[in-house]
Write a structure and sequence with these properties.
235 residues, alpha/beta, Nitrilase/N-carbamoyl-D-aminoacid amidohydrolase, 6-stranded mixed beta sheet, 4 helices
Length: 235
């Protein structure tokens, strides 16, 4: 039997295109969260800057996050643009004390993303201490096909990094509730707070964790730096 899983959805105060500074901010957030799984927003290492250079898994700046994960025993899901085989993707890194790997590539793109990035391979699952964690990034969370495909993987938790406008908060919440129902799982959304790139002078924040029955069990406020944290238990 798997044990409980502590999860934090964080909204760090990042800066444009500065991976070194943002990695340090991520490391600080991980130490503050004190959770086994820490989820960050979409493209959190670069801001939502679609022209940001790709970030490699062996970028020395990421050492700060690796060290923080080693110290706390955390696994972090960190947003970054990547390049593989000449194609660019919006990705989520899996970071722990052993290093950095690519955990997921965004499957459903929108807006100017379509001119800059390729679609990922679709639903996937990540194992964290026996917990099956389905992954999504922003628009994925609103695509029924992606939710259905993730549910078919038998997930215990659906985790996603987001960038939404403040006026899209109602839709952000509706997606979390729909995914919880479709997957019969917990849901953790890490949503950017404050300004970011791509014309977002303000973002929604209010990162949230839902129970499998759609109840909010943890919620951050609208300000950058806030964290939603919960202890998830097996059903």
């Amino acid at each position: 039997m798997k044990g409980s899983l502590s999860v934090a959805a964080v909204q760090p105060p990042c800066v444009a295109l500065d991976v070194v500074a943002n990695a340090r901010t991520h490391a600080k957030a991980i130490r503050t969260a004190r959770a086994r799984l820490v989820v960050f927003p979409e493209l959190s290492l670069t801001w939502y800057e679609l022209d940001a250079p790709p970030v490699a898994t062996d970028d020395p700046a990421l050492r700060a996050i690796v060290d923080a994960c080693a110290e706390t025993g955390s696994v972090a899901l960190v947003g970054a643009p990547i390049e593989e085989g000449g194609a660019r993707f919006i990705a989520a890194f899996r970071v722990d004390g052993d290093g950095v790997t690519v955990a997921y590539r965004k499957s459903h793109l929108g807006g100017d993303e379509l001119n800059r990035f390729q679609d990922g391979d679709g639903p996937t699952v990540l194992d964290v201490d026996g917990w099956r964690v389905g992954l999504g990034i922003c628009k994925d969370t609103g695509v029924a096909e992606h939710t259905t495909g993730t549910a078919a993987l038998g997930v215990d938790l659906y985790a996603a990094g987001l960038v939404h406008l403040p006026e899209e908060l109602e839709e952000q919440d509706a997606r979390g509730e729909r995914i919880a129902a479709a997957c019969s799982s917990y849901v953790a959304f890490a949503s950017f707070a404050g300004a970011t790139g791509g014309g977002y002078d303000a973002t929604a924040g209010e990162s949230t964790i839902w129970s499998p029955d759609g109840r909010m069990i943890a919620r951050a406020g609208a300000a950058a730096g806030e964290i939603a944290r919960a202890e998830l238990v097996t059903r």
